Amino acid sequence: MLIPIHEKMTREALETRFSPRALEIIIAANKKQDALRGQIGHDEFHFDNNALDKSYRYITEQRGQVIATLLGPGILSAWIAFGRLLHTAQDFYAHTNYVSLWLAQFNGTPPAPPPSGIDPVQKSLIASPDLHSGKLYLPFDVLYFIPSLKKVSLSLLPRDSHAHMNLDSPRQGPRFEYARAAAVKRTLHELDILQRILTPQMFARFTDL
Predict the structure, then answer these.
(1) How confident is the model at residue 152 (pLDDT cuts 50, 70, 90)?
(2) With CB atoms 3.0 to 4.6 Å apart as the test, which of 83, 88, 109, 145 could cross-link to 30 if both were Cys?
(3) Confidence bin at 141 (pLDDT 50/70/90)
(4) Chain centre distance of CA 30
């Protein structure tokens, strides 16, 4: 998703769950994943190019970094790792066809209230052989980001391209709101996982409240 959207979703989900200083560091680390060096050669940061297993491992590794940091006296690295983790988890819904698979279960009539009713961690969909993410077809995917060349690039790109599949902004249509709702829920889900793993004392230090 676009950087301002990552920030807004993270702030919406976590503003009451972390201290202001912790939240700002988490958000900064989340946004940094979309810097140029995080875009080239790091499919696992964004669930790109069908790097599903690599992205799942990356989330697990960053969660492990949070725990390892909190086992010691440090705290900063835990917040940074959590921000990185959240970026990848949030991009899952914008860069894969998870939303389309979820909607397909209801024959075009999702349960009310849409889109907030989406389940972000439905096991059958996460394990589905039909789940895939958008592929980057260079250089045409680069042209997609130039407004005057967007239509041309889309005409040249296959349907499984990142350009066709992404739900990075509201401009991509009504499915974006499902991706956004799922990403906000997933953000809270990832925090809940850590709350179950960490001791109460560790979790309190992590949230810095």
Answers:
(1) confident
(2) 83
(3) confident
(4) 9
* pTM beyond cutoff 0.70: yes
d(CA 86, CA 137) in angstroms, rounded, equals 26
Spatial separation of the C-alpha atoms in residues 40 and 27, rounded to whole Å? 21
Q: CB burial class (10 A; 0-12, 13-18, 19+) of residue 204? A: exposed
DSSP string, 2-23: -HHHHHHHHHHHHTTTS-HHHH
Is residue 20 exposed (0-12), middle (13-18) or buried (19+ Cβ within 10 Å)? Answer: exposed
Alpha helices in 17-168 (DSSP H): 20-32, 36-39, 52-70, 76-95, 98-104, 123-126, 140-144, 150-156, 162-165
Residue 196 tokens read as 């179950």
